[in-house]
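Input record (Table S2, row 435):
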Amino acid sequence: MNYFPQVEKVAYEGPETKNMFAFRHYQADEMVMGKTMKEQLRFAVAYWHTMTQDGADPFGKPVNIRTWETSDPMETAKNRVEAFFELLVKLDVEYFCFHDVDIAPTGNSLEEFFANIDEITDLIQVKMKETGIKLLWNTANMFSDPRYTNGAASSNNAEVFAYAAAQVKKGLDISKKLGGENYVFWGGREGYESLLNTDMKLEQDNIARLFKMAIAYTKEIDHKVQFLIEPKPKEPTKHQYDFDAATAMAFLQKYDLTNDFKLNLEANHATLAGHTFEHELTVARCYDALGSIDANQGDMLLGWDTDEFPTNIYDTTLAMYEILENGGIAPGGINFDSKVRRSSFEMEDLLLAHIAGMDTFARGLKAAAKLKEDRFFDDLKEQRYASYQSGIGAKILDDQETLESLTEYALAHDDVRLESSHLEYVKSRLNDYLV
Ligand code: XLS
Ligand code: NI
Ligand code: NI
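Output record (D-xylose complex):
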């Protein structure tokens, strides 16, 4: 069955094209800073938003037309695999991501759920072999089911902890089966509703316990995978422990997990934390922990995770600059954790939305590469921190100075003069790079 008859393959046709189903900026084999765009960007499609999201919102019923839906959950699941790979091939996207519950019906017991996962991942495996498409990451959904109301690893109920552990084990088994390159933990319910009844220390200790079990298990099954924490400050819980990049790093350091974990950063989660996306990426890079990104954008007028497809080239330029600074994002990638708006309910919108996101990131990549080639930020920062290049600054960086020696220096040089940063000029020059 042909789920996306609108196009055989989405091709690059350049910015002037009027063809809706063509790339206007993303050209897979165009070289940018020594790699093809495809290698630089490592795009992934998210199973949940693309295959299972129905367009319902708190005020309205499902609206999305999805031609793979049937009344039989297992048949629907199989149709989704077909449609998903058709979409990926047509978009020329090399990677995908999923939660366990996205791909297979949960059935009436854990055993049935696992059996369904086995059957569907057999099918996915065949499709992966056929197409060369790879698994960027998978994860266990430990937030939707009512049993996770009070958290998964952080639940007050030890049986819930055990159930979560079983889901993680299965997640790692399928990661090995499908050659997953990363494995994500997003702690949607790992937080609290009220501190009045919460043992924060025990809850965080238990999250670390589950992570350590996961590391131990991958060693046991000899599966090399990069673990990732995905920070988010709130939603669904009032407070989530992995609040932002800096908080997640403090957690990883406290529990000695930095060798096995990096961060999967999402643009809209940064917004919810009161940060820009580039702030989160920069923090991660400072800790050498930039693992992967969930690409989307929020709405500054709305206080929730709207998961819009990224279309803001200013943001993707600054994000791609951080990624280039990082020397690339592999083994991570750029996962479209984005969903179509409710009014974009047709099948073809799935193509159009991904094309929009890919084009926006391609523009960001090109602009970021130019900024790097021109040493735009390098020169700017070099100049701004020039006082550390020689004299007292160089000695401070050399760790030769003490409070006493600096007091002596300051007494003799108390006529400090700063230079203007000309920030308005900098911002207006940056605008010239947006393409
Ligand atoms: C939700 C998260 C989720 C993770 C995977 O806000 O972004 O989709 O990426 O569990
Ligand atoms: Ni996400
Ligand atoms: Ni999100």
